[in-house]
Amino acid sequence: MKLLISLILVLLLSGLSTAQTVVERNEQLLKTAQELVDTGHKSEALVELFKMLNANGFDPAGYYNLGNAFARLGETEAAITAYRRAIEQRKGGYSRAYNNLGVVLLREGRWDESYDAFISALKIESFRYAEASYNLGRLYAARGQNDLAAREWRRALVADPKHTAAAEALARNANEEVIAVERAPVVKSATKSATSSAPKVSSTPPAVNRLTLDPTTFDFLQRARAASERGKLTEAIDNYRRVLSRQDGYFAPANLELSYALLSLKRHDEAFPLLLQVTQRDGARYPVSYFHLARLYELKGDLKLAEAAFTQAVSANVSANNQFLLDLSRVREKQGDFKGALEAMERYAALAEQQGQKPAWCDERLAQLRAKAQ
Q: What's the pTM value of the predicted model, to 2 decimals?
């Protein structure tokens, strides 16, 4: 028995020693990489960082810092891998890694994945994580959901009243779309004063793009959004449908948000008519609707319609998401339009380079399309 206990202790101490060695090794690799970056040796720094990424060992904080290092150097895919490893090693309980993962995905235009990352970060912190709320607001704004963006920035300020970026974003968003409860009609008095005939000038200008709902419908919308955030998609869908039934079948934010919930459940046939309605009636206000509609057309094999919808998404929103150009290039290539695919890819590369975010694989992809287009 004593021999068995001694053996267990040796194994435990050996495990602790190994874990400590992994952490120390990773700290040294990160330190060396930073020194190389500081002296202008980026390629040598990346060699050190990839050594760490390709090694095994338990070090969630180390992989989180590795993700940050890759993100600063523009190595997006490596950063994503590092953040996800940190999250996995913490068994999903790593809010800062989720938040930073969401930022990198947002920068890449991978909005659905970015949304999942920010929501995961907020759930861990019981929706009191200012930076994640701020970044989720940025995502909503990019998708044209300005009232939801404003809500997240207000939530960020509740969690951290000194969050300057959220306050500035909220101020910039002041004249964007607002969804409000309808006011009850004012009952005018039967008797008029001597000055009552003079028109009254309001000191507050009307809100721009103001959408109104009656109190009950507004409540259904808020219930739907809360359920969706918490992953209760069936409950969210029920409440979104209640909103639409009270709005003669159409209220653009509800149509759009209901379609997202249905897409998450892969109920594509139900999401399709909702997105189609938004593109036909409010596509300019919600250009992301073209993107999701295009994805559904592509899944159905309707590549011409997918190309047309991706083109609309690019025209309306390329400044916020040049990722749409990659989608456009892909569907053109599927149709054998290699010159068109190359043109979209060249536009993507030029925009990415302007933003200092040109991926490493970009030149290889351009070369492949140039060879096909000849």
A: 0.78
